From TrEMBL:
<protein>
    <recommendedName>
        <fullName>Flagellar hook protein FlgE</fullName>
    </recommendedName>
</protein>
<keyword id="KW-0966">Cell projection</keyword>
<dbReference type="GO" id="GO:0009425">
    <property type="term" value="C:bacterial-type flagellum basal body"/>
</dbReference>
<dbReference type="GO" id="GO:0005829">
    <property type="term" value="C:cytosol"/>
</dbReference>
<dbReference type="InterPro" id="IPR037925">
    <property type="entry name" value="FlgE/F/G-like"/>
</dbReference>
<dbReference type="InterPro" id="IPR011491">
    <property type="entry name" value="FlgE_D2"/>
</dbReference>
<comment type="similarity">
    <text>Belongs to the flagella basal body rod proteins family.</text>
</comment>
<dbReference type="InterPro" id="IPR037058">
    <property type="entry name" value="Falgellar_hook_FlgE_sf"/>
</dbReference>
<feature type="domain" description="Flagellar basal body rod protein N-terminal">
    <location>
        <begin position="5"/>
        <end position="35"/>
    </location>
</feature>
<feature type="domain" description="Flagellar basal-body/hook protein C-terminal">
    <location>
        <begin position="497"/>
        <end position="539"/>
    </location>
</feature>
<dbReference type="GO" id="GO:0071978">
    <property type="term" value="P:bacterial-type flagellum-dependent swarming motility"/>
</dbReference>
<dbReference type="InterPro" id="IPR053967">
    <property type="entry name" value="LlgE_F_G-like_D1"/>
</dbReference>
<dbReference type="GO" id="GO:0009424">
    <property type="term" value="C:bacterial-type flagellum hook"/>
</dbReference>
<comment type="function">
    <text>A flexible structure which links the flagellar filament to the drive apparatus in the basal body.</text>
</comment>
<keyword id="KW-0282">Flagellum</keyword>
<dbReference type="InterPro" id="IPR019776">
    <property type="entry name" value="Flagellar_basal_body_rod_CS"/>
</dbReference>
<feature type="domain" description="Flagellar hook protein FlgE/F/G-like D1">
    <location>
        <begin position="95"/>
        <end position="162"/>
    </location>
</feature>
Length: 541
């Protein structure tokens, strides 16, 4: 009789523990990184009233007669499955997708957590906002490298609050210089009306660039009437060649006849001659430069003229910012001029630094850059630019690397592609990558890899011992295996997200009902046993 009563008592105790675990799961339904638990029951010892007997001759054996003594808690298991991820938009939040735990330092002890609400304290140390414990990982060097990576050597993560200035010593250039680029001559007035002795004609002017030749044009002066004789050539047209340099300076001007158009010439309009002034520039001087245009005038009448202007288009200006050793920025402007077919030149006298021309920066001479017939560079790949910044006061040399520049027919896109060096900067923000790198963003526009979060994994994660908000190793969890995210069996990281509790409310409410019913049934067992005892006591009356 008393066995049933004590069995009921054990049922009350066991279901009360089940209710305690269920209540803890429900109360932590919004706790980030929380791992729920469940209770499993086991039967307690049974009292054997009669043992089993073996079969003999023509009689069957008998089974043992045992009465159970109640129920006990067999285990309280931790569910270490991942919870759902919630995007927070906060760069200091991070969640683990897959296996692994964040490693925290509690004094001299290591503890572990799935909660990724992290932040930095006033000393720049990364810590868990939930517990205040310091996050462990590996620090990167100034180049963002980890050197000889040793997963077992783990330490506090401390952000570098400021980054020192670094002077520029290399600038790389890339993309394309237009192979078809050439300087142009534009004809502003293409015709000139002539009249003499009752006869008239119209002189037409044309310029055609000579294919495959730089700054070379075919020049034609022609009349509409076939009877017109231009410059005694016996033809109604006279042609020539005009060659300039990159600045518009006339190198050569020659015609197909012996007539020198720069000294004046005649046009015969069917027996009536018209005297033409010399082909001169816009100022009336002999042609030496056509940057301001040039003209042909009739008898000194400058109101009738053919005006042509020079446009320098075979040039690419590239401005790039470099930094000195104190972090001051200096703007260097380079002018690349096409000086020949497959050749471009940096004119040393045109190099500007901070808006002013600085002499001698390329070593005392212009720097040519040549290309082969396939558009690839084959000469002048690099040149040193040397100047003295006013702050440091010492000479600084920057290597200009043009090895990646091409020359194909197409858009003029040549520009700098990479510049090292930077000004000093203060840390403005940080973020995490999927592989656990901590990336800092500084006020100088630089981003730098500063550290890597360490993760720990266990042979039996469910064997970890719970402490306030964290886990500790136990004799059945196994030793921690340290490593980096997204490699070696460790999960990847999800930046700006948090892992929510894995408690399942529908399951927990169901467990609550079953715990209540079990508790209620156990209590009924006790009251029924009590009534039976009361009947037994009443027998003596």
């Amino acid at each position: 009789m008393l066995r049933s009563m004590y069995a009921g008592v054990s049922g009350l105790n066991s279901h009360q523990q089940m209710m305690d675990v269920t209540g803890n799961n429900i109360s932590n339904v919004n706790t980030i990184g929380f791992k729920s638990s469940r209770v499993t029951f086991k039967e307690m010892l049974s009292q054997t009233i009669q043992g089993a007997s073996a079969p003999q001759d023509n009689r069957a054996g008998t089974n043992p007669q045992q009465v159970g003594l109640g129920v006990g808690v067999g285990s309280i298991d931790s569910d270490m499955s991942s919870g759902n991820l919630q995007s927070t938009g906060k760069t200091s939040d991070v969640a683990i997708q897959g296996d692994g735990f964040f490693v925290l330092r509690d004094g001299n002890n290591q503890v572990y957590s799935r909660a990724g609400n992290l932040n930095f304290d006033e000393q720049g140390r990364l810590y868990s906002s939930s517990t205040g414990m310091l996050v462990q990982g590996w620090m990167a060097d100034a180049n963002g490298d980890y050197g000889d990576f040793n997963a077992q050597t783990i330490d506090d993560i401390t952000l570098k609050q400021e980054i020192n200035a670094q002077e520029t010593d290399s600038v790389r250039f890339g993309k394309n210089l237009d192979a078809d680029a050439m300087n142009t001559l534009e004809i502003l007035e293409q015709s000139l009306e002539l009249s003499a002795g009752g006869n008239s004609d119209t002189l037409e002017f044309s310029l055609t660039p000579v294919e495959g030749q730089h700054n070379v044009w075919d020049f034609t002066l022609s009349g509409a009437e076939t009877t017109t004789d231009i410059a005694g050539s016996g033809s109604n047209k006279i042609s020539g060649t005009l060659i300039t340099d990159n600045d518009g300076e006339v190198v050569t001007f020659e015609t197909s006849s012996s007539t020198d158009l720069t000294s004046g010439f005649n046009v015969d309009l069917d027996g009536s001659s018209v005297t033409m002034d010399a082909l001169v520039d816009s100022s009336g001087s002999s042609i030496t430069n056509i940057n301001d245009g040039f003209l042909i005038a009739q008898n000194g009448d400058t109101t009738k003229n053919a005006n042509l202007t020079f446009d320098q288009t075979a040039v690419r200006n590239i401005a790039v910012d470099v930094f000195d050793s104190q972090g001051a920025k200096h703007t260097v402007n380079l002018e690349l001029e096409k000086t020949d077919n497959n050749e471009w030149t940096i004119n040393e006298n045109e190099v500007e630094i901070n808006g002013s021309t600085v002499a001698g920066v390329l070593g005392g001479s212009d720097h040519p850059i040549s290309f082969d017939s396939n558009g690839n560079i084959d000469g002048g790949e690099t040149v040193d630019l040397t100047f003295t910044p006013p702050g440091p006061g010492t000479a600084q040399t920057v290597e200009l690397d043009f090895s990646s520049v091409t020359q194909f027919a197409g858009d003029m896109t040549a520009n700098f592609s990479n510049v090292n060096g930077y000004a000093s900067g203060a840390l403005e923000s940080f973020s995490f990558t999927e592989t656990g790198d901590v990336v800092g963003s500084y006020s100088n526009g630089l981003t730098q890899t500063l550290a890597k979060l360490g993760l720990a994994n266990f042979s039996n994660p469910a064997g970890l011992t719970r402490q306030e908000g964290v886990f500790q190793t136990s004799s059945n969890s196994g030793d921690p295996e340290l490593g980096a995210a997204a490699q070696g069996g460790f999960g990847s990281l999800a930046p700006a997200t948090l892992e929510m509790s894995n408690a399942n409310l529908s399951q927990e409410f169901t467990n609550m009902i079953t715990a209540q019913r079990g508790f209620q049934a156990s209590s009924k067992l006790i009251t029924t046993s009590d009534e039976m005892l009361q009947e037994l006591v009443n027998l003596k009356r």
